[in-house]
Amino acid sequence: MRLLGAAILLCLVGVLHAFAIEEKGDVFKRMACPAFLMFDNAAYLADMTFELPCNCKPEEVSSVIWYFQKNVGSHETTVLTDFAGTVVVDSGHIRTGSDVLKRFSIRMFSLIVFRAQVTDSGHYLCGTKKGDFFYGYDVDVQPTKHITVAFVDRGQHVQDDYTRKVFSLFTTFWDWTRCDRCGVRGEQRRIGLCYIQSAQLHPRYRTAVPNVTSCGSRAVPANIQRPGRLRRPEVAIRSCLTPCLKEEVPEEGVQAISNVISKLGEKPWLPRVPTQFHQQPTGSGLIIACPGARPEHAVAWDKNSIRLYRSRYLIGVNKSMRVFIDHGNHLHIQRVRVSDRGTYFCWREGEMVAGFRLSVIYRHQRRRTLDDPETFYAVKTIGMSYVLISIIFIVIHVCRCCWQVFRCPART
Q1: What is the pLDDT of residues 200-239, one digit of tens each?
Q2: Calpha distance 278→359 (Å, rounded)
Q3: pLDDT for position 261
Q4: Dihedral, CA atoms, 397, 402, 404, 407, nearest 10 degrees?
Q5: Rounded-to-integer distance, Cα 91 and Cα 118, Å
Q6: Regarding beta strands 331-333 and 286-288, do their DSSP bridges make them parallel or antiparallel, or are they unpaired?
Q7: How many helices, marked H, and strands, marked E, lie in the chain?
Q8: Would residue 265 be called left, alpha or beta, if left means φ above 0 and alpha means ψ between -120 and 50 degrees?
Q9: What is the pLDDT of residues 104-113, one digit of tens each?
Q10: Of 3.40.50.300, 1.10.760.10, 3.40.50.1360, 2.60.40.10, which CATH number belongs to 272-361?
């Protein structure tokens, strides 16, 4: 009877799997490709990962090719494929700022771009090797540099709408993230992107709301693009308090003796999370990333028992900050000091997930090279000082000569 039940279960699993594949195929049957290629608008914040599904294709096409164009009709087109239909990319090994050809993957006809940059803004086309296009996207990646930050607890407000005769600029906010900590005071973020409303938008671009698109969209006419570029995305931050989920405690007598023995020697005052050990020389820079976290996640950092709140440690709060958290949820430590040693804990979506134990060692003396940032900064400073002194010297001599020229006729 057990074998019969197992055989029936396997058959049901196979039927459900075949049904799922058939449903995936039916998506393309139900949605016909437009006769005239349109572009769906999509806006994201820099360093985010986004996915673009190929929503329609002919039934006879078994694999798709993705193309990238900065502008429509441009002769410079980037082919985002290996012409085998898929590219496998490990997002954990992708560095910020790398070329888009190293930051994409194609899965089930959908294009995934990891850690998007402002330069990735443009048109993405789903098509074939022959150059037949089925579906298109107008992607707008808005920068995090000089982003506008509003701390709600301090009474700060977001940007006001900017209205003119033919257009208006405003911010569209996403939902508040989860509280980044539990059991203690945490913080929530709300990301807002710049959007524009105008009746002069290009009709070839399709938007969710009529006459409304993101500020960096190619649908915006050239005469009103400049005001949209000057308005920056926003982020609002507020405090929150959420209780931690209670862990299930095993019944008395169920817990094995080995589990009891394994707890002997543990330090109960330290959080039980995976901890990585790292040594960093003094004077160098260090960037710590939370495992499995993305820019849109709720992420928090602690140093030992000290909470590193964004209201104090967010980048841009103080220009002279040496330790700060960027908008991609990375913890930066510049010019590492001995006082920076300790254990840094990472919270993700309200749960502590990892620890990072940092020990600081003294840097051995080494010869400087021109590639060092300190050497480049010193040469740049000395060069600018020399140019400034030269300009002052020339101005003084020109003034003296002019004084001599005007003074001589007066004596005559």
Answers
A1: 999 889 888 899 999 999 999 988 888 888 888 999 999 9
A2: 6
A3: 45
A4: -150
A5: 18
A6: antiparallel
A7: 5, 23
A8: left
A9: 787 778 888 8
A10: 2.60.40.10
* CATH superfamily ID and name for 24-142: Immunoglobulins (2.60.40.10)
Q: Tokens standing for 137?
A: 């996207």
Closest residue by Cα to residue 201 from 218, 188, 186, 187: 218
What pLDDT was estimated at residue 302? 95
Closest Cα partner for 214 from 197, 226, 190, 235?
A: 197
Rounded to whole angstroms, how far apart are CA atoms 108 and 24? 9
pLDDT at position 249:
56
Token look-up 């490709």 returns: 33
Report the relative pairing of strands 299-303 and 342-348 from DSSP bridges: antiparallel
Domain ranges of the chain: 24-142, 148-242, 272-361
pLDDT exceeds 50 at position 89: no
Please list, in sequence order, all residues whose beta carbon lies within 8 angstroms of the beta carbon of residue 19, skipping any fewer than 6 positions away: none
